[in-house]
């Protein structure tokens, strides 16, 4: 297949200082929860991006000194020569597939609480650290020696990056992660010396750092500057006009400008709150302030939008973090004219949640993310089948679709049977909920791939029974039959069914099926804590219901803190008029009234409530599995070798977990795992020589 010539512009080589990128695809820095703990996993993940055609592949932030480390988040470190081999493995892996390797040097300044190193954090002035967890830690104001030290640390780290083989090195002043941004932003920088006050003074440190790094490595390496073009809090913070003044002032100092919004939640907005290219108004015109190339992001998945960004002079490079996670092969697919194969990011931020929880980032769309080295999974390829098994997959939700697609890719003959008339399972309804339409891409991508596979047959309106299945003669059966929301209130706070004497009780499944409460005042009890409670409150209030969201958590949709949405969800609900009753457990509901107990004191109170929407937990749909297991004695005669339950039917979870479950089945079919072995590889740090007596002797 050949590509449309209108995309050729995306494959122009672009010079960045002393190096040249082969095209305009730029995987900007992104965290991944692997960092210094999982270096080979990280190297393989980055190499896959290079293999997928990105011209530049960046690291996540690489902390240059223990005076700024953001434990518990796991990033890279460039603290000493000890780190160089790990960094080199990553650069070498990227070079293996012909991409430029970039290392994002970072000193987090007063963003870092230094809970691991116990060093005193530093910032422009004496202030509490500006960190995720509000640790009881203050940063001290940097004096001139501190500034000299910081400059030296950047130089030293850049030289280490050079020894590790990188082509590009960053100076990071963005997102209130890169410490120099605290100097740029007038709300933090109230210094009265030459590093505070005027724009030129506040930009002095950044200028010196870029110049120092250029001086150290600029002969062979490009030096990029990552900067935020808006804090999105108006004149109080770094705002569009001032950011432009700074970029104009420093225009030719770095070799490349990488533009972000601040803070991270604004930079990586979810599809619930922003569309593709949402950063365009913020970066428009910046390119005209400098002759140096400019990279920006905006959850780009459409090649036409990418071309427009370049043709209209908005960006030189198409930057991507999340789209490159969801599909590391976007550049190759565009190059080969295979646009329909692009696996578009859905903007859910489950990847961010992996980083926030210091686990390995996972992706709803790309179950191989983070598993490239650990489990040997590849986002595009899977090994051919090992036998001729004919496989029946029951249920076309995320788990069943992924299993059928990957089994089909392995070359198995597959039948996918779905009770409903559409593919997508839970997504058929969930994609119609407020703000979730982009999530439908999980189903659409897989439906598109399945349609091209002659060895996979799809049967709609096929609610299968055990009798049907035993009559078909498949070798293996995969049950991806999903789950249903509980009606009895049982979840985390309530482990016994709720007393509901006569009250109208609805579940998310009811609402998604179009059923609505008769009463107009609704109590929505959210003991699930992710998106569903908040989304349904939004749905009902927009339809004119009076809604009170009751939750045992301290805030609405509490877990969505990990997807960087919680504060936005809470603000949206409040603005829509949803009443929030937090730290409260629903104890009982009767016609017209409910009893709530304070989650801390147990004190009870009554509130009026006409109907209950219970969003607490789900039950796996296992009727078919039980029926088949009850007839295990008949399997051999029916030619059936195995029945495996996957996805929500095994244990209800996220869509990402269901897709992962589908992939895992397809990957592991035919393998004979040693039950005593770990299910994945891990890296254990090499032990240093150890002389206990010398350490403990007095
Ligand atoms: P998961 O997230 O694990 O993929 P979903 O709930 O999204 O689960 O999807 C499960 C799918 O299985 C639904 O589309 C449902 O209609 C289908 N399903 C459930 N039971 C049967 C059955 N007996 N026969 C065919 N399809 C079924
Ligand atoms: Fe996109 Fe969601 Fe994957 Fe992150 S987890 S890359 S937001 S699809």
Attribute tags:
single chain, about 700 residues, alpha/beta, TIM Barrel, Rossmann fold, FAD/NAD(P)-binding domain, 3 domains, about 20% strand, binds adenosine-5'-diphosphate, binds iron/sulfur cluster
Description:
By secondary structure, the chain is α/β, with parallel strands linked by helices. The protein has 24 helices and 29 strands. The mean pLDDT is 97. The chain is globular and about 75 Å long. It has three domains: 5-356, Aldolase class I (TIM Barrel); 390-482 and 621-668, 3-Layer(aba) Sandwich (Rossmann fold); 486-617, 3-Layer(bba) Sandwich (FAD/NAD(P)-binding domain). The longest helix has 20 residues, at 144-163. Helix 14 (398-410) packs parallel to helix 16 (441-451) and helix 19 (531-542) packs parallel to helix 20. The strands form seven sheets. Strands 3-4-6-10-11-12-13-14 form an eight-stranded parallel beta barrel, surrounded by five helices. Strands 17-16-15-18-29 form a five-stranded parallel sheet, sandwiched between helices. Strands 20-27-21-22-23 form a five-stranded parallel sheet. Strand 24 and strand 25 form a beta hairpin. Adenosine-5'-diphosphate binds next to helix 14.
